Amino acid sequence: MTDLTRLTAAALAEKLASGEVSSVEATSAHLDRITAVDGDLNAFLHVNEGALAAAAEIDRRRAAGDALGELAGVPLAIKDVLVTTDMPSTSGSRILEGYMSPFDATVVARARAAGLVGLGKTNMDEFAMGSSTEHSAFGATLNPWDPTRVPGGSGGGSAAAVAAFEAPLALGSDTGGSIRQPAHLTGTVGMKPTYGGVSRYGSIALASSLDQVGPATRTVLDAGLLHDVIGGHDALDSTSLPDSWPSFAAAAREGARGDVLKGLKIGVVRELPDSGFQADISTSFRAALAAMEAQGAEIVEISAPHFEYGVAAYYVLMPAEASSNLARFDSVRFGMRVTPHAGATVEEVMSATRAAGLGEEVKRRIILGTYALSAGYYDAYYGSAQRVRTLIQRDYTDAFAQVDVIATPTSSTTAFKFGEMSDDPLAMYLNDATTIPANLAGVPAISIPSGLSDDGLPIGIQFVAPVREDARLYRVSAALEALLQDQWGGPLLDRAPMLGGKA
């Protein structure tokens, strides 16, 4: 039988629908893969004990002739920032170790309703604060391409699970690049939808005006299929858009087979010089643009003068919102409780609990955020950062008056070694310089593989589209994906020498 873990979600779904493969067989294959490799990778924090029972129920319903969704029976990994009723939800933090939610996140509930089978919860930087998954309280996740290197963050667990063939699909969250940057470092696909296009209800909040849930997959089509399942209006999320959305899977299929690149105007930001990127990343980026240009696309230089202030604005706004959101972890309502001595006051218990339960990066950002919101500094820091955010939104508006999409390298470096940036938080923060502006503006953005570095590590290219034009991203990125895979003779992951692909 075909190795079921090597199939894309779309291909596996076809075999399930035809009856060639059962969901129990597909789920068992992925659970076996997790058992075989995750002891080394640490992509999963918890494996779902009820996965096979859920798969058996899908098989029963299919045999009974029930109408099922296209992805029914396909296994799914879930980033631990999303709460679930049947598995612990920790957000990578000791302060929530063992916490069981009384409800499912909306995207998890929609995945269950569509028949996807939850494999387990994936590792992440604590409360989604980090770009490497080194800041998980439960140990770092390793990159399947090279276990001495990081898989990115904060969603390194989801990206590594998909890259290592432990799961065909995964859910992630993206506050400043936490789906796209891990995709870049692991040779996978990561999509950040338009803000409000996918419900955040049940996603443990980092920065509520920036967070967005989205898919992590191995192909653009798979991302579209999962996006179709989880997207759409949710009355439980006050920021959810009431829009009616097109099929993103249909857009991806159109891009893969149609002539969508002809006449497409692709913007390249003048203020992002090659000198800011690793040389082979710039080379890969230019080669991808050339491939699209050969198919009739037009490359247009655009100006986005305020993008350079995006990182600075983000690291005022995000910690400010985080300091407010994380105030709920007070030792009183749920989670860890540490009593420092008999007769301790609530304030003393709260202080001791947070000292023991929160990691250094989380504490750093809470302190930064509390300072930015403090009396006398609010206007100087938080207010100024919000004004920069408005200027970045205007940069996008001006740019999209000239071009259809904007293209950038997804990140400035390939996967770095563990510990390489641990002593320099600023260098780590700058790793998200190209991904952060999309979160500040609320526009959709996607990262897909564009090639390999000189030392054989994956590189990604990012496309950004106007608000609500997620389908445009699926068409464009699927077209480039098809072009590049023709050049490579197959998916990039087939060239990975380590756990991710065929030796």
Characterise this structure.
The protein has about 500 residues and is an alpha/beta fold. A hairpin with a 5-residue loop joins strand 10 (about 445-450) and strand 11. Helix 10 packs across helix 12. It has a single domain, classed as Alpha-Beta Complex (Amidase signature (AS) enzymes), CATH 3.90.1300. An eleven-stranded mixed sheet has the order 1-3-2-4-6-5-10-11-9-7-8, sandwiched between helices. It is globular. It contains 16 helices and eleven strands.
The CATH homologous superfamily = Amidase signature (AS) domain
Structural class: alpha/beta
- Count of individual domains: 1
N to C succession of SSEs: HHEHEHEHEHEEHHEHEHHHHEHHEEH
Spatial shape = globular
DSSP summary: helix tally: 16
What is the CATH level 1 assignment? Alpha Beta
Biggest β-sheet: count, sense, barrel?
11 strands, mixed
Distance between the termini: 20 Å
Q: Percent of residues in helical segments?
A: 25-40%
Which helices and strands appear, and what pairs or packs with what?
Layout: H1 9-18, H2 23-41, E1 44-47, H3 51-63, E2 75-79, H4 106-113, E3 117-122, H5 156-163, E4 169-174, H6 180-186, E5 189-192, E6 212-217, H7 220-230, H8 248-257, E7 265-269, H9 279-293, E8 298-302, H10 310-325, H11 346-357, H12 360-373, H13 378-400, E9 405-409, H14 425-430, H15 436-441, E10 445-452, E11 458-464, H16 470-488
Parallel strand pairs: 2-3, 2-4, 7-8, 7-9
Antiparallel strand pairs: 1-3, 4-6, 5-6, 5-10, 9-11, 10-11
